[in-house]
Write a structure and sequence with these properties.
Elements (H helix, E strand, L loop, with lengths): L8 E6 L12 E6 L5 H8 L18 E6 L2 E5 L10 H16 L4 E9 L6 H12 L4 E6 L6 H15 L6 E3 L8 H12 L1
Parallel strand pairs: 2-4, 2-5, 5-6, 6-7
Antiparallel strand pairs: 1-3, 3-4
Length: 194
């Protein structure tokens, strides 16, 4: 029995880890750099145009957003590594993300988003190392694959798997634009929440 992703609705947004509600359902968190296309990917997964707000300005998601989807929660974490906000605001985001992961929650899956067009970035390596060290189940969604040819995307996915030191099978090549890899990502979410 699959998850009815299109039933997704916004639940609430929280600006500090102390405000986060208790974890009462399976949770799937989305984490990634500020301009990696997190909102677009979430919208594609839930078959909605504008559930998660997209913006031409990276760094728009400054809170943790919770979405209820057919008995599970999708958790949209603030993008990390955005340079154009104050150091204080960046620290608040970092505290918010680590505060989320420090809690007793139902971490069914973390979808770590990485832009497929670039080699492994330091912040992405740190995020994946953190997830591995914390023994959290994660899958890497390589975003913006529509910007590369299929052959180039496959090549880059293999290269990133090697750079991150994870099996290629732990990655899904995606494009929110073209819908590439979205069914696969939905399957991974369903498997993690069953």
């Amino acid at each position: 029995m699959g998850i009815k992703f299109e039933t997704a609705r916004f639940e609430a947004a929280f600006g500090t880890a102390e405000q986060l509600p208790e974890s009462t359902t399976p949770e799937v968190a989305f984490a990634g750099r500020s301009n990696v296309g997190k909102s677009s990917l979430i919208n594609k997964v839930v078959r909605r145009k504008a559930l998660a707000r997209t913006s031409s300005q990276p760094g728009k998601t400054a809170n943790i957003n919770f979405y209820l989807v057919d008995g599970i929660r999708l958790v949209d974490l603030p993008g990390y590594g955005f340079a154009k906000v104050s150091g204080k605001e960046r620290q608040r985001w970092a505290d918010l993300i680590s505060g989320y992961f420090d809690q007793e929650r139902s971490f069914n899956l973390v979808v770590a988003l990485v832009d497929i067009r670039h080699d492994a970035q330091k912040l992405d390596v740190q995020m994946l190392d953190f997830l591995a060290d914390a023994e959290l189940p994660f899958v890497v969604a390589l975003t913006k694959a529509d910007k590369l040819s299929r052959a180039k995307a496959d090549q880059q996915a293999a290269r990133l798997a090697k750079q991150f030191g994870i099996p290629r099978s732990q990655m899904v090549v995606t494009s929110a634009e073209k819908g590439t890899g979205i069914d696969e990502l939905r399957r991974r979410i369903e498997d993690a929440c069953n």
